[in-house]
């Protein structure tokens, strides 16, 4: 049985006070149900957010990380730095990093290995652009992202990896994938994992959906058999809407 994970990706938003207040609100709303809850603030707010959720069940993660352990890498943050602060997860390969910053599967793969070696749980994001969906390339795109990003990752290591399917056309647009569209890709991702690894890995890996998840659509998405939670952007920036999504996952 896969335990649902509801993760908030706060992206490049919020002042320090807003981030700490939101973290307190999420901590109070997270409850003690059978749902894992995660928030991923920007690096500069990590320490305040980690203090703010202390004593609650909310975990904290980074939105990215670099693969080298230390040295002359201006602007970068290491896995050890995240772990030292108390982060448990790190988002990798988000479409904004792939498409805006230009990250390759090779770089994401290096980051994923570094995260696993440091004891962080990577949330590996995959997803197609609108023109790729319209050209019926969705599965080819996510397969190539999955294969490239998971190169040399073992079946044992997959116990600590979370996948997030985030169709780029649904991110921040208000256009959610329908539960049927999302379920179809999630089921295909699970088959790819069975072929690449084995049935146990395929059955065990949590696959989150991301892209305009809101309180109004969360329950229908969570009801799909291969959707194990959500990676939430905009609706994670308010404690009450994020709490409603957590409740939908636990229902
Ligand atoms: O990119 C996302 C989460 O990582 C989704 O963002 P929105 O929920 O704002 O569409």
UniProtKB/TrEMBL annotation:
User: Does Signal appear among the keywords?
Assistant: no
GO molecular function list: triose-phosphate isomerase activity
- What EC number(s) does this enzyme carry? 5.3.1.1
Its localization reads: Cytoplasm
What pathway is this protein a component of? Carbohydrate biosynthesis; gluconeogenesis; Carbohydrate degradation; glycolysis; D-glyceraldehyde 3-phosphate from glycerone phosphate: step 1/1
One of its GO biological process terms is: glycerol catabolic process
Catalytically driven reaction(s):
D-glyceraldehyde 3-phosphate = dihydroxyacetone phosphate
Q: Which residues form the signal peptide?
A: none
What does the record give as the active site?
94, 166
- KW Metal-binding (keyword) present: no
Q: Where does substrate bind?
A: 9-11, 172, 212, 233-234
Quote a single Gene Ontology cellular component term.
cytosol
Cite the Gene3D superfamilies for this sequence: Aldolase class I (3.20.20.70)
> What keywords appear on the UniProt entry?
Cytoplasm, Gluconeogenesis, Glycolysis, Isomerase
Please provide an example of a Pfam family that matches this protein in its UniProt record.
Answer: TIM
Q: How does it assemble?
A: Homodimer.
Its job: Involved in the gluconeogenesis. Catalyzes stereospecifically the conversion of dihydroxyacetone phosphate (DHAP) to D-glyceraldehyde-3-phosphate (G3P).
Q: Which family does it belong to?
A: Belongs to the triosephosphate isomerase family.
Q: What is this protein called?
A: Triosephosphate isomerase
Q: Which organism is it from?
A: Mariniblastus fucicola
Its lineage reads:
Bacteria, Pseudomonadati, Planctomycetota, Planctomycetia, Pirellulales
């Amino acid at each position: 049985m896969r335990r649902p994970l509801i993760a908030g990706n706060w992206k490049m938003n919020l002042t320090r006070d807003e981030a700490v207040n939101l973290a307190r609100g999420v901590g109070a709303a997270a409850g003690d149900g059978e749902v894992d809850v995660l928030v991923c603030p920007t690096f500069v707010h990590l320490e305040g957010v980690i203090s703010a959720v202390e004593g609650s069940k909310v975990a904290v993660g980074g939105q990215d990380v670099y693969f080298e352990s230390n040295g002359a890498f201006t602007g970068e943050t290491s896995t050890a730095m995240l772990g030292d602060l108390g982060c448990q997860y790190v988002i990798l390969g988000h479409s904004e990093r792939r498409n805006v910053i230009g990250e390759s599967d090779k770089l994401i793969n290096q980051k994923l290995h570094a995260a696993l070696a440091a004891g962080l749980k990577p949330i590996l994001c995959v997803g197609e652009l609108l023109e790729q969906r319209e050209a019926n390339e969705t599965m080819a795109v996510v397969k190539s992202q999955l294969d490239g990003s998971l190169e040399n990752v073992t079946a044992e290591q997959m116990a600590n990896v979370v996948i997030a399917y985030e169709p780029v056309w649904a991110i921040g647009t208000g256009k959610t994938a329908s539960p049927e569209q999302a379920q179809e890709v999630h089921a295909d991702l699970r088959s790819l994992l069975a072929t690449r690894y084995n049935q146990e890995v395929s059955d065990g890996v949590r696959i989150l959906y991301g892209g305009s998840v809101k309180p109004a659509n969360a329950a229908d998405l969570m009801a799909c058999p291969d959707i194990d939670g959500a990676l939430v952007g905009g609706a994670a920036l308010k404690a009450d809407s994020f709490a409603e999504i957590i409740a939908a996952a636990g229902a």
